Amino acid sequence: MSRAARDVAAILLAAGRGTRFGDAPKLLARIDGKPLVRHVAEAAVHAGVDPVIVVTGHRAEEVRSALAGLAVHVVHNDVFAEGLSTSLKKGFAALPPTARAAMILLADMPFVTTDLIDALAAGWRERGEPAALVPTYKGRRGNPVVISRELRPMIEQLSGDVGAGPMLRGRSDVLEWPMDDVAIVQDIDTRQDFDALGR
């Protein structure tokens, strides 16, 4: 893998309980014969991001088993119940020195592709490595988001069940990146989402 390809790592957030989904573990629900979490993990592994760091929490061993055979680096978040911010911190703490940015991937977005991941990493580089690159679809912000390592001190200040979104709003050094790919806004929160999107 080239040096340029190692400047953006991936952090796959796979620690949450997914309580809105119901009693069954959301990330283990199957689409096209694969657990939900494995779809985006496979896309990341085949993309030009390195390493792929997976942050586990709820049902960690089952999530790890669902990723068997993939070249991912798994870190466990013991305090995942305190909210999303704790997983972001855990992921950033695991970044290697070569990574100048992290692409934040959500495990409940199974339609994110390798090409999409590569396009966002390339866009971040081409636009001068902004503090963050946020994809948009028809004016709506989506995921994955590329976040510069320089923002780690701000991420360390987050608490509770919040992601990076509020931290990025209103910053002049955050670049929106319009894309014609609905996958960036297709996440699965509920069983209804799964039934509608998983067909």
- Share in helix: 25-40%
H/E series, N to C? EEEHEHEHEHEEEHHEH
Give a count of the beta strands, DSSP E runs of length 2 or more.
10
The fold-level CATH name is Spore Coat Polysaccharide Biosynthesis Protein SpsA, Chain A
Instruction: Please give the radius of gyration in angstroms.
Output: 15 Å
The proportion of strand residues reads 15-25%
Alpha-beta content class: alpha/beta
Coarse shape: globular
CATH domain class name: Alpha Beta
Major pleated sheet: 8 strands, mixed
Protein described:
The chain has 199 residues and is an alpha/beta fold. It has one domain: Spore Coat Polysaccharide Biosynthesis Protein SpsA, Chain A (Alpha-Beta Complex), CATH 3.90.550. It is built from 7 helices and 10 strands. The longest helix is centred in the middle third of the chain and has 13 residues. The mean pLDDT is 89.
List the helices and strands and how they pair.
Blueprint: E1 8-14, E2 30-31, E3 34-35, H1 36-45, E4 52-56, H2 60-66, E5 73-76, H3 84-93, E6 101-106, H4 114-126, E7 132-137, E8 140-141, E9 145-148, H5 152-156, H6 165-168, E10 174-178, H7 191-197
